[in-house]
Amino acid sequence: MGNWDSYTTGQRVKLLRGTDFTQETLAEAAGVSVGTIRKIEQGGSVSLPTLLRVSEALHTDVSVLVGQQAPRRAMAAADRAALRGLSAAVHDTAAGIGIDAAPPEESVHAAKLAAAWELYQLGDYTGAALAVSPLVQQAAAMVKAMLADRVCAARGVLSDSYRLAAYCANLMGARDLAYAAVGHAQTQAELASDPLRVALVASGRSWVYLRDSRLVQAQEVAEQAANAIEPRYTDSDPKRLAVYGCHIVFASVVASRRGDSDRAGDLLSHAHAVGARMGNDITTNGVSFGPVYATAQAVGINVALGQAGKALTLGKSLGDRSALQQATQNRLALDLSMAQCEARMWDTALDTLMSVCTEHPEWARHQALTVILGRRIGKANKGALRKLGGVLGADLLAG
């Protein structure tokens, strides 16, 4: 794909509809004639209201249609629809809009939220975004309708919903929406007087900082949140240990990205100790942690520190990885591919990358690193790189 502003409006419409729409189905979705769609794609002039209807049907902004801003890489119509719905849910509920409906049963909502988290942990970020959008609105309705003695619990649920919305937005590249959602999650967690949820939100904020290349703030927030909930030596609550350990290992990840090997090593050792106290991995409130998770993260930490050999040795030591969520397993494969690349094991690196991307394309196309790594591996196997580029929606042989 060339520079987005170099295309005509008609070319942009054709690119955006891709394989998601035919001219006929786009016309039906937009409420215009097929002739109008053909006219646009052939370079003809149409009115702004028509362009607005077409952009709405394509789940994108009209500014993208006319070339003022480019669409995100590899974002299909379903992705754009999910993000628009998520944005509406987050911003409308924060403004008190659309929260007058009868709230759902708490148990029903909890089950649906758990299912949305499961989609996220599988790496289906579009599916998770679609699932959590109505749950944000329903949780806000619960807060409004709840009696005083139950309102704190409802605020905790709303905080969890906003936090998942922030995670989805962050991975789908909508950084402003991620910041907004995590801010609303923090407010609700504080109003719920729930220190553990406040810490969970802080973890989410530090992750948004990391994706936004604000590494100093990411590490500060992660360590401060961990210190705020540090368990006593006698505290054996697995949920508290899991949340605490997750913060510690994330702070180690950020330290490794900053090149601070001493701090990364200290934090990682502490994370391993917490994992050993737990004995096994658990998932709670949308986060996972335990001894296997700590080792999996250690692979990526060592890659970031330039210790590819150690990363590969750790990868071999993992053995059974079934305790890891699917998205974590996918990221581990990506880290191993990077380590293999650093060790100049080009064919092995390509095989590892190809395997995870073809088996989990919905996850892969939201990972910018997959494209960077694919291009770095080189052009020895052009056929494989073309196939991988098709999965990722990028030309891996460019540049």
UniProtKB/TrEMBL annotation:
<dbReference type="Pfam" id="PF01381">
    <property type="entry name" value="HTH_3"/>
</dbReference>
<dbReference type="InterPro" id="IPR001387">
    <property type="entry name" value="Cro/C1-type_HTH"/>
</dbReference>
<protein>
    <submittedName>
        <fullName>XRE family transcriptional regulator</fullName>
    </submittedName>
</protein>
<dbReference type="InterPro" id="IPR010982">
    <property type="entry name" value="Lambda_DNA-bd_dom_sf"/>
</dbReference>
<feature type="domain" description="HTH cro/C1-type">
    <location>
        <begin position="22"/>
        <end position="65"/>
    </location>
</feature>
